Amino acid sequence: MDMMSVRPALSGKTYFIRTFGCQMNLHDSERVAGLLDACGCLEAADPAGADIVIFMTCCVREAADQRLYGQCNSCKSLPAPPSGTRVVAVGGCIAQRDGEGLLTNVDNVNVIFGTHAIAHVGELIAQAFEDGGRHVSIAEDESLAAVSMPWHRETVYHAWVPIMTGCNNFCSYCIVPYVRGREKSRPFEEVVDEVSALVRSGVREITLLGQNVNSYGRDRYGAPRFAELLRKVGETGIERIRFTSSHPKDLLPETIDAMAETPAVMPHLHLAVQSGSTRILKEMNRRYTREDYLDLVRRVRDRIPGIALTTDIIVGFPGETEEDFEETLSLAREVGYAQAFTFIYSRREGTPAAAIVDPTPHEVIQERFDRLVKVIEDTAYEFNQGELHATVPVLVEGASKKNTRVLQGKSPKNQTVHAPIPEGLNIEDLIGKIVDVRVDTARTWYLSGTVAGDPR
Ligand code: SAM
Ligand code: SF4
Ligand code: F3S
């Protein structure tokens, strides 16, 4: 079945997508929405009003599985949808990992589509409407069809641009390489052309996506071409370039140079460290030491003074001792992170770390986690003080949740910034615009100030 043949079965149906997990999933959801739009479907505001309910799932940590079962079950008590029949579909990483097995845990799910089957979601859902049966597709598709499909963006000013899928790194705790497969880079010209088209359609900021963007191109061209890609994308007229994630072991000097020399590349680098202990890093199969990481941070800061560094940290990796953990605390202080995503280690069946037995009680791990959160709060607060009294260009995202007369947006360093909306302007006039904000207050998680000059 192709898109044209499923159109009659889907046209006029409403859909609702709930997304969990990382930016890959967020972007995959945009592709699914784009495909359903192309089949004549309409987005619904909530699951109760939707003929099609889709869960885009994540299995990077354990709690997600139970939450998914709960969400699927809660669809049973929703009122009947507009068309009379509701199709519940599960996509993303749990779908890819469990496939048919998921059907036994959730009895009201009609469609299961894996991370390689996004291009087929329309036909699977159409079949479910037609025959009332259950349809599963998790086969590895060798093509990159899904990343070239139409897509439905959440905002007009920002776009996620996947440059590669999969991961080759096999960090010992991580499930991602098993569910997303090996690294597969998109063609260089295709990415550049896509960004050029986005610029023409009014997009001002893009985020290049991959589990390890630093190795972009290695599978396709025999050597990484990420530095070259940054420079080329920087010539398209896009105003702000961000990227995630960047594995420390693969961040080349030429990439740091490209970041420093491409004005559109924002002064922010997400560089996941995971642990500050060389011993634990080895156990994690990260392939760098504490010293390598700190040396890299020094080199990045030399080339890009003032850059915001953010990270991911895991607490409670099996066998982590108090001494190991304290090395993580001291590294976080030394780097002075602007933000960090902190996680308690979650055992993932099938990964090498799952076999390591760890007697450390949960309370000890939780207490360490809380200490780390406090240290990150301190470093984030300190980092933000650096912007006090500065004027920062803010890309406006919308109104603050607490006050509709206050705008909220992002600084180049990815800090959240608040400022009162100038008299005579509405938030609708400002969304997607860049305004200069003179910062007069710097807190842990945001800056605030006053708008100076006209939006542009
Ligand atoms: N590829 C990215 C990188 O290496 O920077 C990370 C992608 S992963 C989806 C996001 C984060 O989840 C990781 O950086 C890690 O901190 C965390 N994570 C992965 N597996 C985990 C596990 N088993 N338990 C706890 N946190 C985990
Ligand atoms: Fe997971 Fe490591 Fe790959 Fe990131 S680089 S997705 S943490 S295996
Ligand atoms: Fe989760 Fe899959 Fe992303 S496991 S973090 S949604 S790659």
Features:
single chain; 456 residues; alpha/beta; Rossmann fold; pyruvate-formate lyase- activating enzyme; OB fold (Dihydrolipoamide Acetyltransferase, E2P); six-stranded parallel sheet; five-stranded mixed barrel; 35% helix; binds S-adenosylmethionine; binds iron/sulfur cluster; binds FE3-S4 cluster; iron
End-to-end gap: 46 Å
Q: The biggest beta sheet, please? A: 6 strands, parallel
The number of helices is 16
- What's the CATH H-level homologous superfamily of the largest domain? tm_1862 like domain
- Based on helices, strands and strand pairing, what is the structural class? alpha/beta
Strand order of the largest sheet: 2-1-3-4-5-6
CATH class of the largest domain: Alpha Beta
Q: In percent, how much strand structure appears in the residues?
A: 15-25%
Task: Provide the residue-averaged pLDDT.
Answer: 94
Cα gyration radius (Å): 23 Å
CATH architecture identity of the largest domain? Alpha-Beta Horseshoe
Percentage of residues in helical conformation: 25-40%
Q: Could you tell me which ligands this complex binds, including any ions or cofactors?
A: S-adenosylmethionine, iron/sulfur cluster, FE3-S4 cluster
Low-confidence runs (pLDDT<50, min 5 residues)? none
Number of E-type strands? 19
Shape category: globular
Number of domains: 3
Keywords: 4Fe-4S, Cytoplasm, Iron, Iron-sulfur, Metal-binding, S-adenosyl-L-methionine, Transferase, tRNA processing
Cofactor: [4Fe-4S] cluster
Protein name: tRNA-2-methylthio-N(6)-dimethylallyladenosine synthase
Domain Radical SAM core: 153-382
